[in-house]
Amino acid sequence: MLDRLGLLSKAIMKIEVMYFGRPSEFLLITSERMDIPKAIPTLQHVLDRLRGRGGRWAYELDDSHVMCTVNQAPAVLSACIDKGDEIGIFSRKSIFEM
C-alpha cells in the first residue's frame, strides 16, 4: 500500500559516492550511486552502511584514516546528508601503506 501511494520512494534519497586515491584502488571502485533511507541523515551513517559490506570495506573505511567531503567541501562525520549530495571519500594513508 505504501508503494502505491509513492510514500516508499519518498523515504529514500539518492546520493553519489566518489572514491579517491587509496580507497579507490583498494576497493576497486571509483564511484557509485546509493539509495539510502532518509532516516540515515549523516555522513557517519553512510560510512557505517558502507562498512557493513564487511572485509576490505570495513578495513579501508575505518574512522582512523578516512577523510570525507560533502559536495566538495571538507566534512565531519556528523555532517548532514541530503538527497543529491556528493560524498567524496579519501584516505589519510598512502596507497603504499598496509
Distance between the ends: 49 Å
Profile the largest sheet.
5 strands, mixed
CATH class, anyone?
Alpha Beta
Tell me what the CATH architecture is: Roll
Please provide the count of β strands: 5
The fraction of residues in strands falls at 25-35%
CATH topology: Ubiquitin-like (UB roll)
Q: What is the total number of structural domains?
A: 1
Quickly give the structural class: alpha+beta
Which outline best applies? Answer: globular
Q: What is the averaged pLDDT score? A: 88
List the helices and strands and how they pair.
Elements: H1 2-5, H2 7-10, E1 12-19, H3 22-27, E2 31-37, H4 43-51, H5 56-60, E3 66-70, E4 73-75, E5 86-91
Parallel strand pairs: 1-5
Antiparallel strand pairs: 1-2, 3-4, 3-5
Could you walk me through the main structural features you see in this protein, from its secondary elements to its overall organization?
The chain is of the alpha+beta class and 98 residues long. The protein has five helices and five strands; from the N terminus they run H-H-E-H-E-H-H-E-E-E. The chain has a five-stranded mixed beta sheet with strand order 2-1-5-3-4. A hairpin with a 2-residue loop joins strand 3 (66-70) and strand 4. The mean pLDDT is 88.
